[in-house]
Design a protein that fits this description.
Number of helices: 4
Largest sheet: 2 strands, antiparallel
Order of helices and strands: HHHEEH
Strand content: 5-15%
Helix content: 25-40%
Strand order of the largest sheet: 1-2
Radius of gyration: 18 Å
Structural class: mainly alpha
Distance between the termini: 30 Å
Oligomer: single chain
Length: about 140
Amino acid sequence: MDLRRVSNSWEKSKVALLVLILTASCLLQGCGGLRGGGQLAPHKLQGSHQIMSPKLHGSCIASPQNPLRWGVDRAKADELGCFNRHLAEFPGSWESTELPGEIANRSAVENSTIMFYDSVTGRPLFEAPKGRTWSEFH
């Protein structure tokens, strides 16, 4: 559901209920940055608020590249990466892409790694698995 296009009151009520449930869950279980909540990254690893400031495309300088590797849904990557300030993809969502197949193929080759890139800029982010096996990475 594209929340920017919610127009009727029933849909708005469902969205409000979802936000209420997520907020209650967050407060009960703990969320990073909230009093009594979850753990924040160490200060030296935290980025500045400038990272999420408005840019040309939401909080990104452009939309994600097209196509994305491993059959990743570009619209979902755009929504989560550029127009999202609170949540992330569902746990394990990467398993519905072609990445597990590539990992399985690479696991058979000793010392094989995969370079991961930023979906917007194409810049290298990290190479995996470094210093561990594919099963430890997976």
